[in-house]
């Protein structure tokens, strides 16, 4: 289909002048609206203002521009139906072969502090989506362009095909266009249904309060790759990114080398990355099957790696390693000396020497992710027939907020280790018990139905690693329901405990800690992770 006439009306004018110039150079007539028409005309292009084209001026403060039969008739008429073409000819409506439209900046508007309902409503596009949908519906005869990234490829295709665009191209543009309007409408629906009750009756200058959870939730993700399989080889899987991924999230990764990422690789990489980026000091986190099996901080990344590996060298084999700083050749050499097989290695950056050394391991997946502590606004978990939605667990205990509940007071060093242990426990599957000391994990008990069993497993892990628990500290992700868990960790050698508190048997648990000479602090917040 040869492009003879195009309608251009864009809010985001990135690259549109060059696109219009390219169309004009191929003999395409240009129609346009308002500011877009002025920009094209000022650049010396011959352009027909939409009001002159329809015989009706823009009206109602620009709310009505393109909602006219001469516009939509020229877009929607089926070229293959004689009765359509006869009607078009009868009313003197020229064909519009290409429509270039993007929509009012609703997202940018509602992102502003203090945005009012009136401001938001005025930035809901009407004519734009109507043209996009009309053009996409009639892709057999019209090319609809909503993405500036498509401008140059389309010009190149027209140049190579005597001004024509292929059916496959137009169909692809239509799919992108319907996605564009669907997401635009979803964004509006999410914002409006999330406003506080009575928002419509507030004074025009008052900013409404958006709710955390909209009454109707619309989600939008882009598929980035089809994975080889899911959690198991008989399951199919794909990876989708949020349309606007949070800065520093695993979805923002760049893969430097290695095999394709698997479903489990991505899930475990997320667990490792979310944990390591919470630390200020150089840190290393090793994850196996969604649980940290070794976490440490130190003055250097090498020191952090050495310490984290000691926690559970058996589980570290085939694990995911994440660092919160630039990885150098010293770290890579240490991994090689141990013959440490790793599935995925993640860091904000790697030195040139480290990259060269890692290149010898062709299958090792190496990811670069920008460092940031930003969290998703909401977290989602699919269940049968529904979706669980929650705000992220963004609580991290601080020394000033700890409540000391035992006769024994923790030392400054114990406080430091307790805060480290609590931060690690936040990323361990419940029930979680984490023994720590000197800025490293000593034993991790994860995912048990009984907190006592988690405590015993953590102790056994430390024994297998040859690590001394005498004088260690312990973090529990939730309160101890009975004193037996305290008895076990005291028997293992721990001297201080951090937990949320809040059990009906807190006094019994505190009494047990006093009997054993333990220091115990409450945080007031638990960290269940399922």
TrEMBL record:
SUPFAM superfamilies: Cytidine deaminase-like, Methylglyoxal synthase-like. GO terms for cellular component: cytosol. This is Bifunctional purine biosynthesis protein PurH. Residues 1-146 form the MGS-like domain. Its EC number is 2.1.2.3, 3.5.4.10. The keyword Transferase applies. It comes from Dechloromonas denitrificans. Keywords: Hydrolase, Multifunctional enzyme, Purine biosynthesis, Transferase. GO terms for biological process: 'de novo' IMP biosynthetic process. Pathway: Purine metabolism; IMP biosynthesis via de novo pathway; IMP from 5-formamido-1-(5-phospho-D-ribosyl)imidazole-4-carboxamide: step 1/1; Purine metabolism; IMP biosynthesis via de novo pathway; 5-formamido-1-(5-phospho-D-ribosyl)imidazole-4-carboxamide from 5-amino-1-(5-phospho-D-ribosyl)imidazole-4-carboxamide (10-formyl THF route): step 1/1. Coiled coil: none annotated. NCBIfam families: PRK00881.1, purH. Belongs to the PurH family. It comes from the Bacteria.
């Amino acid at each position: 289909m040869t492009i003879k006439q195009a309608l251009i009306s864009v809010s985001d004018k990135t690259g549109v002048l060059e696109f219009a110039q390219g169309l004009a150079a191929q003999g395409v007539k240009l129609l346009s609206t308002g500011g877009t028409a002025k920009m094209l005309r000022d650049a010396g292009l011959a352009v027909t203002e939409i009001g002159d084209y329809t015989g009706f001026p823009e009206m109602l403060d620009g709310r009505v521009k393109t909602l006219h039969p001469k516009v939509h008739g020229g877009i929607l008429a089926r070229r293959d139906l004689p009765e359509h073409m006869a009607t078009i000819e009868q009313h003197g409506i020229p064909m519009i072969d290409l429509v270039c439209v993007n929509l009012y900046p609703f997202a940018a508007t509602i992102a502003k502090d203090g945005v009012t309902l009136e401001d938001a409503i005025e930035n809901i596009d009407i004519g734009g989506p109507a043209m996009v949908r009309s053009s996409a519906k009639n892709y057999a005869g019209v090319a609809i362009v909503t993405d500036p990234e498509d401008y140059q490829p389309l010009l190149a295709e027209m140049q190579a095909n005597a001004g024509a665009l292929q059916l496959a191209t137009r169909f692809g543009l239509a799919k992108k266009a319907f996605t564009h309007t669907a997401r635009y409408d979803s964004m509006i629906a999410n914002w409006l249904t999330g406003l506080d009750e009575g928002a419509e009756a507030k004074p025009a200058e008052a900013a409404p309060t958006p709710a955390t959870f909209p009454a109707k939730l619309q989600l939008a993700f882009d598929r980035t790759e089809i994975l080889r399989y899911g959690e198991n080889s008989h399951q199919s899987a794909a990876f989708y990114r949020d349309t606007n991924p949070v800065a520093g999230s695993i979805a923002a990764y760049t893969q430097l080398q290695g095999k394709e990422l698997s479903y489990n690789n991505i899930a475990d990489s997320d667990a490792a990355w979310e944990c390591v980026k919470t630390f200020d000091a150089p840190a290393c986190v090793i994850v196996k099957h969604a649980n940290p099996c070794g976490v440490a901080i130190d003055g250097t990344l090498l020191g952090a790696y050495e310490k984290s590996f000691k926690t559970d060298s058996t589980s570290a084999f085939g694990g995911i390693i994440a660092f919160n700083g630039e990885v150098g050749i010293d770290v890579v050499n240490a991994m090689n000396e141990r013959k440490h097989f790793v599935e995925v290695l993640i860091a904000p950056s790697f030195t040139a020497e480290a990259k060269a050394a890692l290149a010898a391991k062709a299958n090792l997946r190496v990811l670069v992710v920008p460092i940031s502590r930003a969290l998703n606004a909401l977290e989602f978990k699919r269940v049968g027939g529904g979706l669980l939605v929650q705000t992220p667990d963004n609580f991290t205990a601080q020394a000033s907020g700890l409540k000391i509940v035992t006769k024994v007071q923790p030392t400054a060093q114990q406080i430091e280790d307790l805060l480290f242990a609590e931060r690690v426990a936040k990323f361990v599957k419940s029930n979680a018990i984490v023994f720590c000391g000197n800025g490293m994990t000593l034993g991790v008990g994860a995912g048990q139905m009984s907190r006592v069993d988690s405590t015993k497993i953590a102790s056994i892990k430390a024994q297998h690693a040859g690590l001394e628990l005498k004088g260690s500290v312990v973090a529990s992700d939730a309160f101890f329901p009975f004193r037996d868990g305290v008895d076990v960790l005291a028997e293992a050698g721990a001297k201080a405990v951090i937990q949320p508190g809040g059990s009906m048997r807190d006094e019994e648990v505190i009494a047990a800690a006093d009997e054993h000479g333990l220091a115990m602090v409450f945080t007031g917040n638990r960290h269940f992770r399922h």
